[in-house]
Amino acid sequence: MIEDNGIALMRQFILSNKKEIDLALDLTLGKGEDSKFIFDQNPKAHVIAFDIQEKALNLAQEKLKDTDCFQGILDGHENLDKYVKEPVDLCMMNLGYLPGGNKEIITKAKTTCQALEKALKLLKEEGLCTILAYRSHPGAKEEVEAVEDFLKALDQREFIVQRVEFYNQIHEPPIFFGIQKRKKK
Ligand SMILES: C[S@@+](CC[C@H](N)C(=O)[O-])C[C@H]1O[C@@H](n2cnc3c(N)ncnc32)[C@H](O)[C@@H]1O
Asked: From the CA of 161, how far away is ligand 1's center (Å)?
């Protein structure tokens, strides 16, 4: 069967396009599910993760307590360049609000695009970036449009950008964007 939800699409994209991950950025840590997925697949990976909510950091740190290669940072992803200087294999953004948390604390168009711009500069050749963009909460449409405009403007000689959605699903399912930085010829 092909996948029928955004998280599964994201995971499939990572599994089929990247065999080894040394360093990943989880730009929206939340409960740490995405970081945990990276460690489950790549036990030797390092993950640097950002969230603006202490609650998210605590939940994720508890989930990831068995690894010492996880660094959770209580700061906005738009400031990632203060903390990360080295090339990365993967960056993940799972936009919106913390599931089960305050629905008013959401990722925002401007800072999401700032973070994307900074993260793509750090991507290694053949590195991946995944974005899962939810559409139904207030503010989401503006964010999705900004992300689409940003991605559409990326040079096709430098990045491959895929956009996948579940066209016949009700309730505005998330859109998945999968990006790969091309190898220089
Ligand atoms: C959809 S949740 C992420 C789900 C998460 N990846 C997981 O595996 O559980 C989005 C998260 O982004 C966080 N967030 C909002 N604005 C942010 C920002 N500027 N920088 C980093 N995280 C932010 C929210 O606090 C929320 O926890």
From this structure: 22
